[in-house]
Amino acid sequence: EALADNLLRVIDVLCTDAMDRAWRCRMGSAGALSEAIALVRTWDDLGGGGTVTEDDASPAQKGAGHRLRRLWRTTLRLLDDVREDVRQKGETLGKSLRSLTLRLATLRQEAVRTSLSILLGTTGLESSCTAAAGLSISTVLGIVDAAPPSSLEEGLPDLVAVLVGSVSNLEPAALNYLQVRADAPEGALSYDALDSLRLRLSARSPLSVALDRLFDTVVPRASLAVRRLLIPHLDAALRRAAGTASRAAAADCAAALARSSPAAFGGPSEAAAVRLLRALAAGAERERGSGARSRLSRALGAVAEACPPPAVGTLATEACERYERKWGA
Questions:
Q1: Taking Cα atoms as reference points, which of 284, 252, 264 lies closest to residue 164?
Q2: Across the 329 residues of the chain, what is the mean pLDDT of every consecutive 10-residue run?
Q3: 8 Å CB contact between 44 and 102
Q4: Which keywords are on file for this protein (predicted)?
Q5: What are the CA-CA distances from residue 258 to residues 43, 227, 248 (Å)?
Q6: DSSP class of residue 214?
């Protein structure tokens, strides 16, 4: 009862102690935090207030959003600690914090937005620490699965872009090694066979399932402004994609958006839509594997139907000119 009455103060003190220079203090604070946050049941139990997407060092800011961000920042730091004992306690804390985050995400959209603001950043999914990145991915996927669609609308473009870019990160490194060095013209070790295998595996990955859910349940209900914002984010994700699976995922998302919301490709989004169209065309022309090339080509056709006809005509003319230069009239 005494702990419940002073829960917020205890959490604040433990978060501070978890960053102490003494490793035993960090380890003990991590274990105590796991037990303390188990008592939190609602957003108000954590301090209430609105969404917080940036850290604020002001001591006057003691709302639930600030505490949730601080808890995540502390946990991700502990997972990358130099001491194994501290990292083990950090893993236990991470499981407790993930459960708390998913519980709050089903109740309040502020919890969804606050959590995603830190999990999608450089300390979360993009962290060089494998344990921190893994916990972040697991939590983000849990939020996508558990949170109401309306809670995911704000920040949807950033969420989709990060998930698309992360699809290739879950692939076994051995597949990429084999495919890059594949020289058999046909058979199990041909480039196309390995490309097809990679795409089949990525299609069943948790990230691809989460993207499918977003485009099936969240995107159709999102406002036109949010759907328009998806276009430049998909364009950037496609251009930055480091692997075949991410490029194919970006193409699939672009095709799904073009089919479900062709109106988003006009008006203020026309320039961004044309850039996406050109990125898909360049990717389809450059892609070596037939499987990925086919998916990029299908997406190109879907986006072309939604784009302004003059832009499509210009792109087609340029493609014909390149063909003539390469193969002759």
A1: 252
A2: 78 94 96 94 91 69 87 96 95 96 94 93 88 94 93 93 88 67 60 80 88 94 94 95 90 95 91 94 89 93 92 89 77
A3: no
A4: Repeat
A5: 37, 10, 15
A6: I
What pLDDT is attached to residue 2?
63
Q: What is the dihedral of CA 73, 75, 81, 85, to 10 degrees?
A: 160
> For position 184, what pLDDT does the model report?
55
Cα–Cα distance measured from residue 151 to residue 218, given in angstroms and rounded to the nearest whole number? 9
Give the Cα separation of 290 and 180 in Å (integer). 15
Contact 215, 222 (CB under 8 A): no
CA distances from 259 to 81, 162, 267, 268, 305 (A): 47, 22, 17, 18, 9
Q: Write the CA distances from 263 to 159, 266, 269, integer angstroms.
A: 22, 6, 9
Distance, C-alpha 199 to centroid of its chain: 18
Q: CA dist 209 to 43, 91, 144, 215, 226, Å?
A: 28, 25, 10, 10, 21
